[in-house]
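We store amino acids, tokens; thus:
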Amino acid sequence: MADDRDRRIERLEANFAHLEHQFEQLNGVVVEQGKLLERLKREVQRQSSAMETMELERIKSNITKPPHYQ
């Protein structure tokens, strides 16, 4: 009976160690994805700002002053 209980405890401990290892791996993946997401957000913001600046410059270059202002 004690032998059976010891085997069950060993199996539970092995399963727990395996789950703990998987948890650590998944946590590492989540952390890396979070970093990547933040980097991509900054890049999208930078691209959006650049496009907005280019669009404003394009609009300004297409506006002509009336003859009496020149």
